[in-house]
Amino acid sequence: MNETLTTIYERRAVRKFKDKPVDRKIIEQIIDAGRMAPSAINMQPWKFYILTNKDDIIAFSKAIKAGAVKGIFKSGIKAIAKTVVSALRFPHGADFMKEEDMVFHGAPIVIFITSPNDNEWAPLDIGMCAQNILLAAKSLGLDTCPIGMAKYVEYTKLYPRLNITKDERVNLAIALGYGDENPVVHVRSMNNVTYIG
Fold this sequence. Notes:
The chain is an alpha+beta fold. It has helices spanning 3-10, 24-35, 54-75, 77-88, 122-139, and strands at residues 47-51, 109-116, 143-147, 168-177. The chain contains 5 helices and 4 strands. It has a 4-stranded antiparallel beta sheet.
C-alpha cells in the first residue's frame, strides 16, 4: 500500500497516552492539515480551542463527565437508553469510569473543534476536518481519540474559560499525544456496498 493508505489502515482510537509533551510546531502542523479539509462553499467553519496544561485537561475532563449527565437527561429517555447501551459496549469496560481523566484519557493535548450554530453543513465539514487531523497526527507518529462527549462542555462551569462565542457550538474534541497502547483492528463490515448500473 502507499503511504496514505497505510496511515488510514494503521490509525486507531487510542485511550492511553504517554506523559510526553507534544512540540507546538507539530500541533500547528496537525491543525494546518485540519484547515485543508474541504467545506461547503469553502466556508471553513471550524475554530480550534486547544488545552495544553495537564491540570486544565483533568479539570475539564471531570467537569464534562458531570456535564454529560445533565446533557443526556435533557435529551430525553431515548438518548439515555442509547447512552447506557453505548457504555456497555465501551472497549475498556466499566473501569474507564474510575480513571482520573476518563474523558481525555491522559492526553497531553486536547483540541476542541467548534462551528457556527447557523451553518447546517458544518457538521459534515467538521467531520472531514477532524479526519484530516487524525490522519495527520498518525503520519507524524502521534495518536488520537475523537471525543464526541466533549460537546457536553457547554453544560460545565468551566465552559467560559474556552472563550467560545455564543454563536458557536462544540462539535467534538480530539485527544492528542504519543500513544501508550496498540488497540486491535476491529473487523470491518464488508456487506455495505451496492453498485448501481
